[in-house]
Amino acid sequence: xxxxxxxxxxxxxxxxxxxxxxxxxxxxxxxxxxxxxxxxxxxxxxxxxxxxxxxxxxxxxxxxxxxxxxxxxxxxxxxxxxxxxxxxxxxxxxxxxxxxxxxxxxxxxxxxxxxxxxxxxxxxxxxxxxxxxxxxxxxxxxxxxxxxxxxxxxxxxxxxxxxxxxxxxx
Length: 170
Prior knowledge:
This protein has 170 residues and is of the alpha+beta class. Helices cover 24% and strands 26% of the residues.
């Protein structure tokens, strides 16, 4: 599946949130503004309250995948914490095609909710410490506002200290 092709797991996301019986808010989004920086700037959302779901691939045979969730103000430590936890010699961000194939979602809409198959979900501890967060909504057409404790309702979730780090400032 190419990134420009329509991928919409929005119904699966909402269905899982309803199944979990948690509070959430669906926030419609212009698909052209779905990337985090544009979304936050155009919808008045603080980047500290926005969380990115990033699929990482460990280079092994077979490949190992994990979905990492971190605040938009942080940088994922792919070659440190994530690679070590995966137990691989190399790790990288999954390609757009790999992300679409594994999650059923395209970049800009990826979320830990509504995944088609179980996947390890690693959440940076800083995400859980927020009062509320905005996550992808399964497509570039919506985002979801949740209490971070909602993530603890998912199976395969692990909270990890220092999965991500604050970006270095110059």
